[in-house]
Amino acid sequence: MDEQPRLMHSHTGVGMAGHPGLPQHLQEGTGGADGDGRKQDIGDILQQIMTITDQSLDEAQARKHALNCHRMKPALFNVLCEIKEKTVLSIRGAQEEEPPDPQLMRLDNMLLAEGVSGPEKGGGSAAAAAAAAASGGVGADNSAEHSDYRAKLSQIRQIYHTELEKYEQACNEFTTHVMNLLREQSRTRPISPKEIERMVSIIHRKFSSIQMQLKQSTCEAVMILRSRFLDARRKRRNFNKQATEILNEYFYSHLSNPYPSEEAKEELAKKCAITVAQVSNWFGNKRIRYKKNIGKFQEEANMYAARTAVNAANASSHGSQANSPSTPNSAGGYPSPCYQSDRRIQ
DNA sequence: GGTTATGATTTTGA
DNA sequence: TCAAAATCATAACC
């Protein structure tokens, strides 16, 4: 311990004369009449600094308290804060005004549209709804696919919100910690509230860039899920035999006018367990394919015509009127001059 | 693996 | 806006 002052003196004599951290008047002690006196001052100050660690905690606290209670301290800190604001911070401030990031806005909009962020939609996602609309309704398979889609989207949503919550919590904790630290430090060094505010905004920016990554990967996951779902939608499954028979029966028994009304389509759809749109598709395909190759469908037409005739005979023998096919047609009836669509009256 | 059948989608035209 | 026609994509069959 006794060595320290001597050591410090030897240092100051040569090395500390040009120390950048010392005030000018303390660095000018290389010669002149009062040069030795200044060296002595520097020595004293440095000795105080070096011995401060030897002081007890109570002593240090007492010194700190004395400094804090100094009558000139608030004024001095105010001046220093002002100088800081006018120099470094004001320069930074000009750079901090940034417009909202368009990429972030796009990500936010997409997450909102897909139902990942924002309030949860009861019916699932917009994509599922759009896909359902495009496929003309919700069949048994479709609804299974939709529920699968919704379940996966809900998983994504859950992960997204959990992660987001974690980030927000971490951000808040870190911000509070830094704010407390700065407030504490502001007692011993000049820190303006603006500076704290600026620090907080820097922290928020850092965390929002992490959030952006989260949003980006969530969007990617949704896009992959969506494309898989839409691909699945295109998968074709043949109707079951019974459904095909019901549709064929109707088609051949209405060969003169194979255009079922909306009510008839709905009924057929119900009977076949398919959608009205699928019924429309089926009739559209059947009409064009029959017309293109009547010969090929001749046998099929005859078979259904015979079956319809038998049904009608059975119905009349039971004393009831058959309400479906009014006039079973021969296979050659479509397309014939007598064929009239509901809309295309000749 | 090639062909045909068939459901779905897109384009065209009235 | 709807149906016809063309086309696509996949299931089913050999």
Secondary structure elements and their pairing?
Blueprint: H1 3-14, H2 24-27, H3 35-51, H4 57-68, H5 73-96, H6 102-113, H7 126-134, H8 140-185, H9 193-233, H10 241-253, H11 262-272, H12 276-292, H13 294-317
Helix pairs in contact: 1-3, 6-9, 8-9, 10-13, 11-12
The chain binds a DNA duplex (14 and 14 nucleotides) through residues 134-136, 233-239, 244, 259, 277-278, 280-282, 284-285, 287-289, 291-292, 341, 343-344.
Q: Please, could you describe this protein's structure?
A:
This protein is mainly alpha-helical and 346 residues long. Among the domains are: 101-113 and 140-235; 239-310, Arc Repressor Mutant, subunit A (Orthogonal Bundle). It is built from 13 helices and no strands. Helix 8 (140-185) packs antiparallel against helix 9 (193-233), helix 10 (241-253) crosses helix 13 and helix 11 crosses helix 12 (276-292). The longest helix has 46 residues, at 140-185. It starts with a helix and ends in a 29-residue tail after the last helix. The relative contact order is 0.07. It binds a DNA duplex (14 and 14 nucleotides) through helix 12. Residues 1-38, 313-346 are annotated as: Disordered. One of its GO terms (cellular component) is nucleus.
